[in-house]
Structures are given as structure tokens and as C-alpha cells.
Amino acid sequence: MIKKILAWFCALTGIALLASSFYMPAMLKVKWVREHQLKNTWFGKDESAWGDLTNMALLGGVEKFREPYSYKFHNPNDNGNKNIALYLYGDSYTKDVPEFAFANVGEFYHGTNTTGLAYKLDPRKKNVLILETTERFVMGSLNNYELFNVLRKDDGQPIRISHGGDGRKNYSVVVNKNLDYLLFDYNIVNLVRECKAGMNYSLFDRASGDVAISDNGKYLFFRTTVLPSGVFSSYAPVSDNTINDLVKGLDSVYDHYRKEGFSEVYFSIIPNPATILQPGGYNNLIPRLKSNPGLRMPYLDIYDTFKKTANPTKLYRIGDTHWNDNGMQIWLNVVNTELRKKSQEWR
Amino acid sequence: MVFNSLQFLVFFMVVSILYYQIKNQKGRVWLLLLSSCYFYMTFVPLYILILGFTIVIDYCAGLVISQSEGRKRKAWLTLSVIANVGILVFYKYFNFLLGNIEPIITYLVPKAKVPYMNIILPIGLSFHTFQAMSYTIEVYRGNQKPERNFIVYALYVMYYPQLVAGPIERPQNMLHQFHEYRTYNWDNIKEGLARMLWGFFKKVVIADRVSIAVDYAFNNHTTLSWWSLLIAAMLYSFQIYCDFSGYSDIALGASKVIGIQLMENFNEPYKSKNITEFWTRWHISLSSWFRDYVYIPLGGNRLGEKRRKLNVFIVFLLSGLWHGANWTFVAWGSLHGALVTIFPAKNKAGSKANGAATAVFIVINFLIVTCFWVFFRASNISEAGKYLAEIFSFKGGVSKFGLNAVELLFSAGFIAAMLFRENKFKSHYIKSNTSFAIYLTLMIACCYFFGVFGENQFIYFQF
Q1: What is the mean pLDDT of residues B263-272?
Q2: I need a surface site. Which of A149, A239, B133, B190 has the fewest CB within 10 A?
Q3: ipTM of the predicted structure?
Q4: With b meaning 16 or more CB within 10 Å and e meaning fewer, what string describes B423-459?
């Protein structure tokens, strides 16, 4: 009888696990409870503050991959003329930037591909749109079919976020990640996982999972950005036809939002850390895009500044996919210079 | 769902437990069929319709063939073969064929746009198509009674452990097992689980680790030294063996847990002393399929030595093409075919050797097979040719492996341990529960701590 009860318990638990891993709302609830209410218990999940890559690779114990979050925002010099309404459709690189960090901006709206951005243009101001993306998402996130659905005029209807790409692969990846989260991603189990990660690192110079270690052993990279193939990679060959198609897409995006009433539309690409820190074999996606004669959309360039920076190692957080304060200030400086110029023109 | 995923482990646990909780065979067959449908649909759900279509055709063909005579029988067999081969050709070879005739089309009609299809190959198509064909052919030959229970027949084609990468089973081995009620047997479960773990070990500890070195060598072969390339090629021989035989071990183990015995697919192939012997030990279910349904109908060895050689070569050519729509696979099959035909029907090279001489034959054969694998791994013939030329020109260059020295040493150690274990201990059955528990713990720890986890699919899934 006990065997039978145990068998049914295991089977039903298994079915419940499979079902929950498919059902995102349930997963989000579980995540919220474990990462907030149970954060400091054995069965919760507490992440270190050393960065997303350090957390993904469970290498928080390795001193050299620890670099704290360090963004500092300042009021830029803009003579108090706030005649711009800024719409920033970006990603996690820019989600922390507050309104006051932008020059001449009187209204500021931020959206991402996971939240969308519904805009109501302000007729009293000059409306400026910046499309910001990290390099690894250039192929996907500036695809106009998806963009026009998630970045659109506010018509009172909620924005439906659809995730494109290889649905089959994403689906299986998501289910397995969810199962991993439900079964093993607990503070108590993570002690064992950290042990494995530490062993892998010290014996094989290797980070596990989605993280790769740079050739010189100093940085962590998101693995997909350093693979020899794949749309996220800095090293995957990109044909001229692909570049031309991207430019055509960008131009159609530009025309679309200009027609919608934006006074100016810019795009800005944040280079993958591997692009700057390990440039051998780089596919030159950014320089080829921005120098393409067909490109009409104005480009806010930080690639050249990043390349020229005396110490490129001071642009990104070592244990994180994102830039550090220095890298972000370079971007803000480029953006604010352009905003100041435009603000003066529109005065 | 790939075997080396959490999704599979949970799925397997649920199915195996429910299987033993159901106390009648009809319910169990339904459970296995529905589970297999779910398993298959986790790849591309709609493709189950293709599978369903061939299942219906072959099921009907089996019934009609058994009840009729003469032309009608042949017509239904032909229909079944055309349906199966037609789907295989369409999904697997359509773009390949177009690519090869494109120069002719564009020469004749310069502005013509070649209509390439944007299709994803249904997973395991070559496997289940061949398995389905073996049913109708065996019924036609009178070696197998037609299966009247549609659910059982559908399960024969869709049985999840071997659905996507074999072994390519025969109806004589499988169908009767789906009719037999099996009582709970702890020994079967222990043996099955131990075998599954062995398969996981080969996949995640060896194959996926050495694949890092192999990928590195194939991506950077122009800069690497000849011996780095040779070692990477040899590592690929072990990668593909551990990947594919690891899959087979998991399939056989998962099936054994519920008491269903699948055929063995590998028998220490790298112990072969000549190429003919290699093919009696490598992918046995495919080799025997080609022997029974292509080689023998072509005349086998009954029509003289020249014809035998031609038949052998045709079989290897088709076997190469079966693996994929790429000239690299055709070249790989042809090379094996050419080498096998050089030897007489009963190839005894090395069979009388002993001691050191045996070792020499084994090493030579392994090196030959390794060189042929380069064609299998390369993305095109030219790359394979360059890779081999770079080895045999003994060129200098960087001696790197994509793995550090410790990782390389560990990999070599695990490969040696794998070869030793497979040579010394054929059975996966462990009688004592304590020993079984210790084995289970050690293997899980080894797979966890030394395994490479990610979304690494099994190489043979693409076929």
C-alpha cells in the first residue's frame, strides 16, 4: 500500500512539474514567492550582486569575477530647456537610466521587447525615438514585423508580446530551464552546484551553462555571443546580403516612425562585450551596418568610442552581460550631445 | 524532447510509474502510445500528422497484403513503400536534389528561381520510416502476421524510446511484446536504470566534452598542427560512438525498465580488426536492415563475386545517403563501400592474429574509420579533403585542442574507462541492491560533476 501511495505521489508530482513548467503564469508566481518571500531560506533563491553571468555560472565565489553594480546618474548640462519628449525602446542596458540623466528631456518613456511601448506623442514637444539594442539582438529585435506590434501608438489596447525566432527550440529550452528552476535551483542545492562550477573552473578553466570564459581568462561572456555560429554571436559570419537586408529593415522602421510623427528616430547598438574585449574574428557587424551607404536612420555611435577607449576592460562589468558605469556614461554622453544639438535646432 | 534533458527524466519517471500502476495490457498500450505522441510532439507538433498518415497507410497495407494474392499484394506493398520513401525523399532530399540540379536549371532558364522549400526535417524520420517499411515487407514475405490492433501497430512505429534514433526494430521482435502483460520486475528496473545511466555517462561526460575539442579543430583546422587535427579526428570517433551508442543505451535501458527488450545496436565497434567486422558491430539495426531489404533482394552473393561487390557498394552508398542529404555522407558511405568490396565476402583480415598483431589490426582499422569519419563530420567535401590533407602533409601549426591539458587528460581517462568497462562487463545487471545503489550514486555524481549540460542534441537526431 505504501509503495502504491508513493508511486502515485511521484507520478502526480511529475505531471504537476511538467504542467507547471509549461505554464508561464504559474512559473512567475513560484519565482516571485521564492525570490522574495523565501529569498533567505534553504528553499528560496538568492542571487549575488556580482552580476548576471556570475550568477548564471555560479562563479560568485571567484574573486576576479566580482564587480559591484555601479551606475551613477547625473543631471546633464542642458540650460533647463526641456523641449524633448524621449521615447527609448531599449533593453536591460538602458532600463535603469532615469529621465533626469537625459539632456533637454521633459518627458521620458522606456519600453523593452518584454514590456512593449505604447506612445502618445506630445504635440507641445519634439518627440524623439531611440531604438537601443545590444548587438546580440540586432538580428531579431529590429525586425520590423515584431517591432511595429510592440512599439506602437497607444490605442487603449494592451500590447501583446510575441516571441519570434525558432519557437521549437525556445519552447524546449524554456521548459527545461523551468524544470531546472523547480527541481534544483534552491539555495541549499546551489551549494552543490557552486561546488561543480568551482571544480569546472579550477580544473578545466570552464564556466558551465550559458557562460563562457574569455580566451585570456579574465572575463565572462554570454556563451551565445562567442559561438562560431548563430545570430547572437560576434564571430558568426554575416553575409553582405544580410547586412543589406538589415539596413532595408532599419530604413523601413525609420520611415514608419517618422510618418507616425516622431521628429527624429535614432538607433543605437551596444557592442557585445566580446566584440570589444576579444575582437579577433569579429564579424564587423556594427561597422558594416553603420557605414552601409543605404542606411538613412541616424545612428548613435558608441562602437568607435569603445574601440578607442584607452582601457576597454573598464567598459563592462566583469561578471555581467552589461556595461559598467563608465560604459553607460559614454553612451549617455553620445545621446545627450545629440539631444542638445537637436534641442538647439528646434528651439 | 532530448534524452539528456530534465523534461525527459520527469517524463520517463511518470510514464514508467503509471505503466506499472495500470493492471491491464490494453491500458498500458494506450499509455505508451499517448506518451509517445507527447514525446514526438515536443519537437514539431504538426509533424505527428505525417507520422499518422504513414501509420494508417502501412496498417491498411499490412491487412490487405495478408488477405490478398498476386498483383494486389504487390500493389499495396508498392503503395506502402512509395508513401514512406516519398515522405522521406520530400522532407530530406528535396532541397538537396534541387541544389544539385540548380546549375542545369539556371543554365537553361537564366532567370528561373529555384523553388527551395523552407522545411524542418521531421525528427527521426529516417528511423521510423525504415521501421515502418520493415513491417509491410515482412508481412508481404509472410514472415509476420499482420497486426490487427491499430493501437498496437501505431505503438510499434511510435514507441518513444526508439522513435527518433532507433534501434530500427523489426515487427517480429516488437509486436508480440506489446501484447504480453509484464509483471513488475525489480531486476528489469535495476538493469534498465543502470543501462540508462551508462548511456548518459557516455553522452554527457564523454561525447559532449570531446565535442568541444572536435568543434574547435574543425573550426580552426587551417591554423592547427597535423597532430592536433589527428587527435581531434580520433576524438570525433569517440564522440560519435558515445553519442549514438549512448542514445541506444538510454533507449534500451528505458525500454527494459518496462520490460520491453529492444535489439542491440552496437557491439564494441572499435575492437574490429577489419572494416567488414566493423559493420557487424556498428549500428547493427541499420546494417541488418540494408542486408535484409536491399542487399539480399539485389541478389546478395548469389550472382557471383562481381555482382556481390556491386551490391555491397550500392548498400553502402544508400547507407551514406540515408544519413543525410549531403555529398559528405555519400562520400563517407562510398569510402566504406569501396573498402568493404576490396575484401572477399568472408573478410578474415586480422581474424587469426593474436596478441600484438591483433592490436595492430585494431589500431589500423580504427585509424581508417577515423579518417572516414572526417567526411561525416565536415560540412562539405572540400573541408573534409582539406582537413585530411592537412593531417597527411604533417604540417606544423598551433597545437591546441579547445580543451586544457587537465580536461584532455580527464577525457582520455573517461574514454579508456568506457572501453575497459564495455570490454569487461557486458551486462548492466547488478544483482545486489547495495551494489546497485552504490553504482547509481557514483554514476549520478560522475555525470553531474563531469558532465556537460546544455541543449546538445544527439548527432543521430538529425537523421
Answers
A1: 93
A2: A239
A3: 0.80
A4: eeeeebebeeeeebeebeeebeebbeebbbbbebbbb
